[in-house]
Structure formats: C-alpha cells, structure tokens
Amino acid sequence: MLRLIHLGLPSWLLMLCCPALARAAEPVDFQQQVAPLLVKRCLACHGETKFKGEYQLHTLAALLKPGASGETPIAPGKPQASYLLSLIREANADERMPKDADKLTDAEIALVERWIAEGARFGDSAPDVSLVSAARWNHPASPEKYRRPFPVTALAFAPNGKEVAVGG
Fold first, then answer.
1. Would 125 disulfide with which of 3, 10, 54, 129, CB 3.0-4.6 Å?
2. CA-to-CA distance for 78 and 104, rounded, in angstroms?
3. What confidence score (pLDDT) does residue 89 get?
4. What is the 3-state secondary structure (H, E, C) of 42-93?
5. Cα separation, 10 vs 14, whole angstroms
6. Nearby residues of 142 by Cβ (< 8 Å), 6 or more positions away
7. Average confidence score pLDDT of the chain
8. Percent of the chain with pLDDT over 90
C-alpha cells in the first residue's frame, strides 16, 4: 500500500509532480493490466482444451479453481496464500511458471501481487466470461483513412458464434 509522508506539501501536489506515485495509488485494472498478461503468458498451456496440471484459466471462474495440486491458485486479499503467485516467483526454472518460457518480469509479478492483495477483482466482467473477452487491449488507434485497401489475412469465429477475430 502506498503511504505518503508529510513534507509540508499537499498530497495532490506530490501526485502532480510525480505521476508514477499517482499510478501506484490507483487500483490494478484487471481487464487492462492483468487479463492481457494472463492471456499472453499463461493461456496457451492452461486453456479450455489444453491444460497442464489440470489448471485452467480460460474463464474468470476457472482462474480461481485449484488444479491437480489442490492449492488455492488465487486467495483474494492474501498474496502469501496464493499458489499462482508462488509459482511465478519460483527461483527454480524447472518449477516456475510459465514453463519453458521467459520468467515474468519483476514489474509483472508485482502487478499480479498487487491485484491479488487488492482483492483479485475482475472489474465489470462476470465470472463465466472468457479471459480473452474480459481482456481490454491497448491497441493503437486505427488511422482515419488507409492509403490502400487493407487485406484480411485471417478470420476466426469464437465457438459460441458471437465473436469474430480478424487479422490483416
């Protein structure tokens, strides 16, 4: 938790002068910060059809259910009791998640820890929503007008038929 010491300056002035302090004081946004990280770094091995260690995180509800270990993956408000956090912090590369991939950065680990400490809230997403649908990606804005037609090179429909992904 962020604590400001009194230096004779109003706290709003400190926040204005140091935007990093202001960002640190804001709660973690699951949909913009945590969900995209989990999709990018974890979903390939712990999805709906392929799931190692019997742990899945394809939906928000699944993210909270124990896998084969029986350990509580996320204990809202209790990072020290959250098995997921211990796995991504593990020093031994053979035991650490993600397996056979680069370790999460210290900033990414700190983000997950803060999210859990703050209660592991999912924002306005319902528990049965897919992790991919809950994630809000920060994409650059599309240009107002393209110089030439933009070809569609890939197209995929979600199993429920309600979403389509287009790549070009």
1. 129
2. 20
3. 96
4. CCCCECCCCEHHHCCCCEHHHHCCCCCCCCCCCCCCCHHHCHHHHHHHCCCC
5. 7
6. none
7. 85
8. 54
